[in-house]
Design goal:
The complex is a heterodimer of chains A (about 200) and B (about 160). Chain A is of the alpha+beta class. Helix content of chain A is about 45%, strand content about 30%. In chain B, the strands form two sheets. Chain B has a five-stranded mixed sheet, with no helix packed on it. The chains are: A alpha+beta (about 200), B alpha+beta (about 160).
């Protein structure tokens, strides 16, 4: 998979629109203003994943959804533990910060956040391109970031040499920083670019 | 001085005592160590898929069969004795489940089986392993002792 500069620029634009939608939905959910931006879209070779993601054994919360349809792929939203716990706390109006490792309510609230985030991206892309996509039920894990990502990458028994990463930055709640990864299935990116004629 | 050689995804490294070989955050992938204690030389590979047959492209270290092949070549080229080689492995977990259901294709399990098969074919004894489960692992291999140190987040630490 190789992507020209113009195609990366287009993906960044799609990312921006998607994150705008996602920020609006999150703001409504959390009853506070959340801003979300896409500072970077990049295609990362497998061997250099740690440069993109930092310490591969850092503990993170990952929300994983499969996106089915005409441009299918896998979406992964990765959050630091503190951010995830704070979001869950705000959502559930909890007095104390929940423990995301064991608190099922918190995990379920975060799954809902994953659902909304990914749906927002997907809806943006559909409105933009007419490509119909449907996200699955979200799965959640709390573990080493590298471990969760490799499991998603190879789940279907094949793997590309590069992964598309859309860096997102959320602001409005303290220490919120997330990474959104989209791993397109074979042919999906061409489909998207085809719609835009690039 | 001892150096820690970091092995990335679909990557492999070869080192000598007192080097430490390390892979951080293994999920369904397999970290395989092959070493010769006598010549104090060792190698670690980060294998992602069972076989290169269906989709050989890109990095050879990505697949169980081709990764082991290049590791053996490098080890013998650098003075390791093929007949003295031993192996240990870790990884092959299942990190996600959807509504309690695990995917049909248990890739972690298949990876572990494939590595075992390839070692058997190459007649290299697999001395110990720590595979499966639903958690990630960070592994450090000490070429001097042949100890494989395994760290997890909520499942303790062990040396195999």
């Amino acid at each position: 998979m190789e992507i020209s500069a113009i195609r990366l620029e287009a993906l960044k634009e799609i990312g921006n629109i998607g994150s705008g939608h996602a920020a609006t939905s999150l703001s409504n959910m959390l009853q506070t203003r959340i801003d979300m931006s896409v500072p970077k879209v990049w295609l990362v070779p497998l061997e250099r994943m740690s440069e993109a993601l930092g310490e591969m054994d850092a503990t993170r919360v990952a929300l994983y959804l499969k996106v089915e349809g005409e441009a299918s792929g896998k979406a992964l939203f990765v959050l630091p533990i503190e951010s995830a716990e704070q979001i869950a706390r705000n959502l559930l109006w909890m007095e104390e910060t929940p423990d995301v490792f064991g608190d099922e309510m918190a995990q379920s609230a975060l799954r809902e956040v994953g659902n909304i985030l990914v749906s927002s991206f997907v809806i943006a892309l559909t409105q933009f391109s007419g490509i119909l996509l449907q996200p699955s039920v979200p799965a959640l894990a709390v573990d080493m970031i590298g471990a969760m990502i490799d499991a998603v990458l190879i789940e279907d028994g094949r793997v590309d040499d590069n992964v598309l990463i859309i860096d997102t930055k959320l602001s409005g709640v303290d220490v919120m920083e997330g990474k959104f990864l989209f791993i397109p299935d074979e042919g999906s990116l061409d489909k998207i670019f085809g719609v835009f004629g690039i | 001085m001892s150096t820690t050689l970091l092995v990335g995804m679909a990557d492999y490294k070869v080192g000598r005592t007192p080097d430490i070989l390390m892979t951080a955050g293994l999920g369904s992938c397999i970290g395989i160590c092959v070493y010769d204690l006598h010549t104090q030389i060792g190698s670690m590979g980060h294998i992602m898929l069972p076989s290169s047959r269906d989709n050989m492209k890109g990095n050879a270290a990505k697949y169980a069969d081709t990764c082991l092949e290049i590791m053996l070549q490098e080890l013998t080229r650098l003075g390791g004795n093929r007949l003295r080689l031993q192996a240990k492995m870790a990884g092959g977990a299942q990190m996600f489940s959807f509504n309690g259901k695990t995917p049909l294709l248990k890739i972690g399990e298949r990876n572990a089986e494939a590595v075992q098969q390839e070692l058997k074919k190459a007649k290299i004894p697999l001395l110990s392993y720590d595979v499966g489960g639903t958690h990630g692992r960070t592994i450090n291999f000490d070429i001097k002792t042949g100890n494989l140190h395994i760290k997890t987040i909520n499942h303790g630490e062990k040396v195999i």
